[in-house]
Amino acid sequence: MNSMNLLPELPLDFPIAAIDRWSLEVYFGVGNVKPYPGRDPNDLLVVTDKNGQTQVWVRPLSDDGTFNTKYRKDYETVMNMVVSKDLDIDHIQSKTRAGQQGYKYVRLIPLKLEVNRAWGARWEKRTANLGKNGFVDPSPPTIRMIDHFQWWKILGVLPENTPYG
Asked: What is the chain's mean pLDDT, rounded?
């Protein structure tokens, strides 16, 4: 039996990147997208989804070695919690790919450290290299929804355990 068939289905309504704040406001409602007090709204937004759940959206940061620490701090501050060190707080959408597509915000989520880093090393580098070679959507959607690879990453499936290994 194929274990991939046992995983929950890909959600159709799971936004992971946004072209701009206005796109988030259109999607979630103006009153549901707010800057965090004392922070630049270009760097950090707090979103309340239709189920009343809080989401943290940030500007995709360059890979200067501090982005993961900054993402963790932002997420823990907004969510008012300490996240286990065996989890990364990271973007679902590759930050490099987000920048290539013109997305100004990416959604943060806790991810299993080993799984997140395996996906980053294997698939996110590949898609970023495609973008460097000119393979970018000329008109990306204003709100990007999750794909299967990103969903598997959230579910904790290592890349080598997918059909695309």
From this structure: 84
